[in-house]
Amino acid sequence: MAQKKYTLPDLPYAFNALEPYIDAKTMQIHHDKHHGGYVNNLNAALGKHPHLFDVPIESLLANLNSVPEDIRSAVRDNGGGNLNHSMFWKLMGKNMGGDPVGELSGAITKAFGSIDDFRKIFEAAAAQRFGSGWAWLSLDAFGKLTVHSMANQDNPVMEGRIPIFGLDVWEHAYYLTYQNRRPEYISAFWKVANWKEADLNYRNALENIDRCLSVADLRKVS
Ligand code: MN
Predict the structure, then answer these.
(1) Which of 71, 52, 78 is nearest to 222 (CA)?
(2) How many A from CA of 113 to the centre of ligand 1?
(3) For 161-187, how does the pLDDT look when each residue is reduced to its tens digit (9 = 90+)?
(4) How many angstroms does the Cα of residue 173 sit away from the middle of ligand 1?
(5) I need a labelling partner for 214 at 20 to 30 A (CA). Which of 21, 35, 116, 158 fits?
């Protein structure tokens, strides 16, 4: 059974841990206010249909048409917001960066030709997402790594993919330091990217691909 109520996870490092690449004030507002807001709004929405607290959020997002219409948008935006940010904080850290590691490293090279080619493709996806959204590295239904972007707080599970690694390109993620210079923020992200965590996500995704993809099973929502 899932928890009865969602809670804001602690940031796994200090607000200033990612400086000078991502400033402490941005991290504090982003975590406490933005992510905190998604958690509160998700709880408020699910509180109108409390049995849905027992359904994994991935299942709700993968089956939005089965979510009651009065809370569908709220679940999409705030359930996605909670899921995305909970993963994102762990994908960064102090003294990180460098190249992908572990099984993910070889898989990226195989899928994209080289680590540098992957970086360019991911940077383009992040830079070209118009307005608010995320760039993602995901495992698709065939076990293939793909780079793509999604709008707002949409999560790859909504497209039957399992997220491995992602970058928040909402202005709230970078505006205080970088203003309109999103490409500089994307470059800075490579300095704090936690590839060990991404490799863990990749190995978990491979192990659970059948289960993860079965979140599209409508029976789980009813
Ligand atoms: Mn954000």
Answers:
(1) 52
(2) 30
(3) 999 999 999 999 999 999 999 999 999
(4) 6
(5) 35
Q: How many helices (H) and strands (E) does the chain have?
A: 11, 3
Same domain, 69 and 129: no
Cα separation, 114 vs 106, whole angstroms: 9
CATH number, residue 31: 1.10.287.990
| Tens digit of each residue's pLDDT (9 = 90 or more) over 80-103 | 999 999 999 999 999 999 999 999
pTM beyond cutoff 0.90: yes
**Ligand 1 center from residue 195 Cα (angstroms):** 20
As a whole number of angstroms, the distance between CA 149 and CA 126 comes to: 7
Ligand 1 centroid to residue 135 C-alpha, Å: 12
Angle at 82 between CA 14 and CA 4, to 5 degrees: 110
Residue 191 lies in a domain: yes
176 C-alpha vs ligand 1 centroid, how far in Å?
13
CATH number of the structural domain spanning residue 170: 3.55.40.20
Please state which of the ranges 1-10, 17-26, 84-93 shows the lowest mean pLDDT. Answer: 1-10
Distance 127 CA to ligand 1 centre (A): 15
